Amino acid sequence: MPEEGLAGAFSVIEEARAKINLALHVTGQRPDGYHLLDMLVTFTGHGDRLSFAPSQTDVFTLSGRFAGTLTGDSGTNLVLKARDLLREAIGAPAFPVHIHLEKNLPIASGIGGGSADAAAALRGLMRLWGTTLPEEALAALALKLGADVPMCIESRPLIARGIGEKIELVPDLPAFAMVLANPLKGVSTPDVFRRLATKDNPALSLAPGLLGAADWLTAIGAARNDLEPPARELVPEITAISAMLQASGALLTRMSGSGATCFGIFATMTTAKDAAAALHGERPDWYFHATETISGGM
């Protein structure tokens, strides 16, 4: 929640859930330089939180572990960009607002923190302002903010293709107990893509009839993240943190997005919480968090 004394003043609250790339296949590159991707994406119960209230003037405040890594510059802050674009799109109802961001996710870490924040800002402001946009208009506005924002608007299991704008929901994907792990070292996404040896890799292919967690784990294990090998070259800690997750009992480990966050899927939330606590004790300077993903049938 926002800092003490402010929480009761906020009439609208939106969760900005961490976005996890269970699989990420780079399948080509457009003439304009954008890479074509096939991604199996899910979202966690853990994330940032945005709160909204009417105000005399526009106000933006921050709290949370990673608040110090952000600024209130409307030229770079995706929450403020989302506010301004939505206000321009809807016009008169868009009175001044106080937006508070509780920043719990590390930035530039491959789990869509900024994109999830922008999507939550769009959802929350539409609720506060009592308005909506047609689905196509909202999708186009979200895409202006970033390729990950349209899927973060959904915040539920999906397959995204193209540059991320072609979305297909995956209602059969189950929830997973998960530990998120990050060595708190930034990874440059452009540098990762530049180091890709091959940019026309096989597309994501999921067998029909996946029934339960075991089937899905097998299918996810057969997929890949094509960005992981070049990211490991740039940040060797990714290799170390993945090995730590495996040694802690993870059934499957992989890097999310362009890194450096890795995830481990565990059999139960109890084992995930125990692993996160042990890993934090081993490396208190790194980021470890146990959470559960959202099921497709939420």
UniProtKB/TrEMBL annotation:
**Under which pathway is this protein filed?**
Isoprenoid biosynthesis; isopentenyl diphosphate biosynthesis via DXP pathway; isopentenyl diphosphate from 1-deoxy-D-xylulose 5-phosphate: step 3/6
**InterPro entries, alphabetized:** GHMP_kinase_C_dom, GHMP_kinase_C_sf, GHMP_kinase_N_dom, IspE, Ribosomal_Su5_D2-typ_SF, Ribsml_uS5_D2-typ_fold_subgr
Which residues take part in binding ATP? 106-116
Q: Which Gene3D superfamilies match?
A: 3.30.230.10, GHMP kinase, C-terminal domain
Keywords of the record, alphabetical order, are: ATP-binding, Isoprene biosynthesis, Kinase, Nucleotide-binding, Transferase
Q: Coiled-coil ranges per the record? A: none
Q: Name one Pfam family in it.
A: GHMP_kinases_N
Task: Cite the EC number.
Answer: 2.7.1.148
In the record, the note on similarity to other proteins reads: Belongs to the GHMP kinase family. IspE subfamily.
Describe its function. Answer: Catalyzes the phosphorylation of the position 2 hydroxy group of 4-diphosphocytidyl-2C-methyl-D-erythritol.
Name the NCBIfam families for this protein. Answer: ispE, PRK14608.1
This protein is called what?
4-diphosphocytidyl-2-C-methyl-D-erythritol kinase
What organism is listed for this UniProt entry? Rhizobium vallis
